[in-house]
Specification:
The chain has six helices and no strands. By secondary structure, the chain is an all-alpha fold. The protein starts with 5 loop residues before the first helix and ends in a 5-residue tail after the last helix.
């Protein structure tokens, strides 16, 4: 395990979560399990984006000293020492959206179960339009 860095473990975990979620969506016939599978895919994608945006040894992009703002050359020299905040902001936004979408899907599943009495996609797929 000497060659495994934290970034590699994060990437492997993200890919594993995405594959587990896709397997649940494609194999399971229960709507609740399919929604949980989509949630796993969502979580895996969040972890993947965060792992790709992380750079070990870099700090948060917070300028706590006015001398960095006064001299553009000093500011440009510190650019390689900080982490890009855009992937973190994207992941945070995606988490909030993912929670909302998951809640909406779960409310549909509950409503469908109350109406049909089953969560089996085979029985629900026989609906007549």
């Amino acid at each position: 395990m000497n060659g495994l860095t934290p970034s590699t473990l994060y990437l492997a975990t993200a890919i594993l979560l995405i594959l587990m979620g896709l397997a649940a969506v494609l194999v399971k016939r229960n709507l609740l399990k399919m929604v949980l599978g989509l949630s796993l895919v969502d979580t895996g994608i969040h972890l993947l984006i965060a792992a790709l945006g992380a750079h070990p040894g870099r700090t948060a992009p917070i300028l706590d000293d006015a001398k960095y703002l006064a001299d553009p050359h000093t500011l440009l020299a510190r650019v390689n020492l900080v982490v890009d905040p855009v992937p973190q902001a994207l992941v945070l936004t995606a988490i909030v959206i993912g929670v909302g979408v998951t809640a909406l899907m779960l409310s549909y599943v509950v409503r469908l179960y109350a109406r049909r009495g089953s969560l089996d996609i085979g029985e629900i797929g026989r609906l007549k339009w």
